[in-house]
Amino acid sequence: MPAQIDIKEVHWLLDIVQCIDVGVVVLDRQYRVEVWNSFMENHSGLGPDEVHGKVLFELFEEIDETWLRRKVDSVVQLGTRAFSLWEQRPYLVRFKNYQPITGEEDFMYQNVTLLPLMGASGSVEHLCVVIYDVTEVARYKKQVAALRAGDGGPA
Fold it and tell me: Hey, what domains does the chain have and what are their CATH numbers?
């Protein structure tokens, strides 16, 4: 017998998804946007009503579609999560860097996690994309690498 869903718990979970300081996007298997949290809205300038039901690749042409489809295919086939680090690919979606103090980078460096979301049938029906802003970490690592290379890098 399935567990009974408490509407209060669902409300709390939705609040968490909206307030957490990472991007949360849920896509169906055709890459149409189902969930779009406030992080995504704030950084893209697009509200949930503007993106719901639209194909992610049409919203953000900078996304490497071939690469993302390959990653998603492995997530779906294996039923396990996949990751992309900023060192491998600086960003999934090119957001402006909004670091108020340093502001040295032109765009937000991102780590990305792809999570399979199983349907009642046990197969992957949706995919959750989690985007982490790691701009400060990237900036620091780049500065350290520049110093080690001897070029001094940015101060």
Answer: 22-151 (3.30.450.20)
